Sequence to fold (146 residues):
Amino acid sequence: MRNTGYIQKKEFDRIFARVPRLCVEVLIVDRKNGIVLTKRSIGPAKGKWHLPGGTVRFKEKLKNAVKRVALAETGLKVEVESTLGIIEYHDFKGYGGYPVSICFMVKSSGGLLKHDNNASDIGFFKKMPVSMVKEHKKFIIDNINL
Fold:
């Protein structure tokens, strides 16, 4: 059974089928190269580009969650610059629950760009790709100038 951090997947699914799931999204901005996106290799949103993100663990500080997720999903160490806002996933198919994310703008402070097992590709973008998670695309359009 896959472990989702501190609890087994069955328990994770049971809990988050009943309550919102707090997540962080990581907007890594490089003034020269653009923003970092990963292409999902698993569901939900398989084959779509998206912001790196993940579930906040119990009692984990948000900045620590951002750093953990960025390193795991992109290979980059990051420093939080600001909180950008909230992303709600009202119609996100494939989750048993209702994820709600706080998006943080960060800058890289080291590491090498590489994707994890949940992604088939990773890269910098100056323009948003066509096949992208719609909530992320809207959030980026509303909050930053590419």
Observations:
- The two ends are 41 Å apart (CA to CA).
- The chain is about 20% helix and 40% strand.
